[in-house]
Design brief:
The protein is α+β, with helices and mostly antiparallel strands and 336 residues long. It has six helices and 19 strands. The chain is globular and about 65 Å long.
Length: 336
């Protein structure tokens, strides 16, 4: 296998606190010899687990970026038991533009496991997959709905077949202390960061912390407190983890019918609220048509019954865009 073309200015396996850069080589109209610079921080102190924290895989999801920036800036070696590696924003150009995708159109979260000879997003994914994932025990990938979706704030996980890995992922999901937890499937194709980390047997903790293009103070608090609590739970951060006074609610969005696509392009009007209970066949939205004032809007119906946990956050919608997710409420015993 070819070595990664991505270079790192620090040794993430060393002790102490190091602040450096990942440099992804590229050429542009403005610079023939250039590099995409991505900050990375490593804080190590003695024996213990290694946790890799990644924010900003999608640029329009600032919740994880702010939480990871705060962690990276303030974390000191005496607070760590083992190692915490933080990449506050894996897609800095997309973050500056407040877009989900890179300026090239690449979706970093569809680029894994990556390629050392591919475009910049695949090179970065390859570096993470081959250099940082292997030295990590726990991988935290912080997401939200971005500009296009409103989510119930939840911690989440995929179903993984290995029972021991699954149990630890459930515990990590619970440690975020969100009111909701969700087990989901990927309906948008392959190449997820978490899927590659899971394939390598890592404990993966992820989130969808709201979205819709805005972040409340409550969500910022949940992002920071949950991240710190997950790190304490796995022993990478000193201190005792905190537990919720009441258990969270578990949502299962593990079937294709949980995800409702737009049947046509137009302006989406939601008819349901987050957290609302709906029945199969119930109208959950309508598509309006700017060019056809005389046309009745097209109703969008739930395929499955359950809790509305995602609603499209922008009205302009193309055919096939997911507009609503309806998940069934479940018992955590199902994850045993």
């Amino acid at each position: 296998m070819m070595d990664s073309p991505v270079s790192c200015t620090i040794d993430p396996t060393a002790g102490g606190k190091q602040v450096g850069m990942l440099r992804v080589p590229r050429s542009s109209n403005n610079a023939g010899w250039s590099g995409l610079m991505i900050p990375i921080v490593s804080v190590g102190n003695g024996a213990g687990p290694t946790a890799l924290v990644i924010g900003g895989v999608h640029g329009d999801e600032p919740e994880g970026q702010v939480a990871a920036l705060n962690l990276a800036r303030t974390l000191q070696p005496e607070q760590v038991r083992g190692r915490v590696i933080v990449i506050p924003c894996a897609s800095p150009e997309a973050s500056r533009a407040y877009t989900r995708l890179w300026p090239s159109g690449a979706n970093l979260n569809r680029s894994f496991p990556g390629s050392p000879t591919g475009p910049a997003d695949e090179q970065l994914a390859h570096f993470l997959s081959t250099e940082l994932f292997p030295i990590s025990d726990v991988i935290v990938d912080i997401h939200s709905g971005g500009r296009n979706s409103l989510h119930l704030p939840w911690s989440e996980m995929h179903w993984v077949d290995d029972a021991a890995q699954r149990r630890q992922m459930v515990d990590g999901m619970l440690a975020w202390n969100t009111e909701w937890c969700c087990v989901y499937i990927d309906i948008g194709g392959t190449g997820l960061l978490v899927s590659e980390a899971e394939r390598q047997g890592k404990i993966v903790v992820s989130t969808e912390l709201g979205g819709g293009g805005h972040v409340t103070a409550e969500i910022h608090r949940l992002a920071s407190s949950g991240l710190a609590n997950v790190l304490r739970h796995f022993g990478a951060l000193a201190g005792e983890p905190v537990r919720r006074a009441s258990p969270p609610k578990l949502l299962m969005a593990t079937e294709p019918e949980n995800y409702v696509p737009a049947p046509e392009s137009g302006l989406f009007e939601t008819l349901v609220d987050l957290g609302q209970q709906v029945e199969p066949g119930e109208p959950v939205g309508r598509i309006h048509f700017l060019e056809r004032v005389d046309r009745e809007p097209e109703a969008v119906h739930a395929k499955a019954g359950g809790i509305v946990c995602v609603v499209r956050g922008v009205a302009t919608t193309e055919q096939g865009d997911n507009v609503v997710v309806v998940a069934r409420e479940a018992d955590f015993a199902e994850l045993a």
